[in-house]
Amino acid sequence: GIAEGRGGVLTGVGRLDAALGGGLPRAALTEIHGAETRDAGAASGFMLALASLLLAAPLRGPAEATAPVLWIGTAEIFHEAGFPHAAGLQAMFGIEPETLLFCETKKLTDALWVAEEAARLTEPASVILEVRGNPRQLDLTATRRLHARARDSGRPLFLLRQAATPEPTAAPVRLVVEPASSVLRETIGGPLTGSIGRPAFTITIGKGSAARSENFTLEWNPDERTLKERWGQERRAKNTLPVVSLPRPGADIAAAPG
After folding, report:
1. Are 180 and 200 in contact (CB under 8 A)?
2. Order of strands across the sheet with 69-74?
3. How far apart are CA 56 and CA 42, in angstroms?
4. Taking a C-beta distance cutoff of 8 angstroms, is the pair 103, 114 a contact?
5. Phi-psi region of 94 (alpha: psi -120 to 50; beta: other; left: phi over 0)
6. Are 131 and 160 in contact (CB under 8 A)?
């Protein structure tokens, strides 16, 4: 589960937390990006995984485990990306449906106002603002206000951006989320042919303390309710043999094409 680290909130994925300089910011605005509309399910699923981890290991004691998560968005984005399926929240993420509160507005300016007011409260476990694209209302000044409210309240505020391109914001961390292929489900007799395994995401650090952009393929375990790296350093270390045989001594290596 998520635990509080020195510089932020640990996701439990060692390489990712290290690349973020100590996890996600504890009291700040964090951007979760889906680059295309078709990635909306992956971005929202990863957001729900983070919300599940926050509720499972609350930052401010057991009372926060039942604190609501407030999800704010416009009618446009909810019509396009949809709502989380209530029946699947408990089974997949361990989130009680009544814990996840939605606020739908007609205009983005209203959604921004609600997010700013909610971000200053200490009652919600976290606040999520879902936005589509790169609207002009969500400029650098607007994100500075959101970041300041989250910093003052000491709670994480997430900006979930669907079908958006990166642009300057006040958020110290930006994670770009894409869907990753699920592997076959593991059974006692081995992989189950034709089955669909656990949800998987490809995470790219688009903005953060890391010196360079890094990619991570993560799986969500709905039974343990944890994020794990599928191709971690431990698994890659086993594949030490070259993919193709090395050239024999004296053999010429083909020149690079073009």
Report:
1. yes
2. 100-105, 69-74, 126-132, 157-162, 29-34, 173-179, 200-207, 215-221, 226-229
3. 21
4. yes
5. left
6. yes
Please return the burial class of 168, using the count of CB atoms within 10 Å of its CB with bins 0-12, 13-18 and 19+: exposed
**Residue 77 host element (H or E):** helix 75-81
Collect the ranges in the chain with pLDDT lower than 50. Answer: 1-6, 232-243, 246
Backbone angles phi, psi at 70, to 5 degrees: -100, 120
pLDDT at 46: 96
Q: What pLDDT shows up at residue 251?
A: 52
Q: 91: closest CA among 231, 220, 238, 228?
A: 220
Quick one: tokens of 26?
């504890």
By CB atoms closer than 10 A (0-12, 13-18, 19+), residue 143 is buried
Question: pLDDT (tens digit, 9 = 90+) per residue, 229-249?
Answer: 986 443 433 444 444 554 555
Amino acid at 220: W
Tell me the CB-side half-sphere exposure of residue 202, using CA atoms within 13 A. 11
H/E run at residue 14: helix 14-19
Q: What is the DSSP string of 209-253?
A: S-SS--EEEEEEETTTTEEEETT-HHHHHH--S-SSPPPPTTPPP
Question: What pLDDT, on the 0 to 100 scale, is given for residue 125?
Answer: 87
SS3 187: strand
- The 3-state DSSP class for residue 74 equals strand
